Amino acid sequence: MAGLPAVPGTEVAKALERAGFAVVRVSGSHHVLRHSDGRVVVVPVHPGKDMAKGTLRSILRLAGITDDELRRLLSSRGERGDFPRN
Asked: Which CATH class is domain 9-75?
């Protein structure tokens, strides 16, 4: 597949939540997310701006998520970016 998708930090944080991470705190524009197994990632959330590719790649590496998994998590959002309806 092609390179990483251009996505804003809010979408990255939502995708990580779908992958089992939870927001534990917010410090300014940085959301700190933790997984139950102890992995911690910090996602910069700047409204109206897509995340830099290098920053996104680093977050995915820390989270243990592949590019394809990220695409799947992003595509699983509902019509308005909500969680999928069952």
From this structure: alpha beta
Helix H, strand E, coil C: the string for 5-49 is: CCCEHHHHHHHHHHCCEEEEEEECCEEEEEECCCCEEEEECCCCC
> In residues, how long is the chain?
86
Indicate the average pLDDT of the chain. 88
User: pTM of this prediction?
Assistant: 0.82
Contacts 24+ apart (CB under 8 A), 14-23: 14/77, 14/81, 15/70, 15/73, 15/74, 15/77, 16/41, 16/43, 16/59, 16/63, 16/65, 16/73, 18/73, 18/76, 18/83, 19/63, 19/65, 19/69, 19/73, 21/63
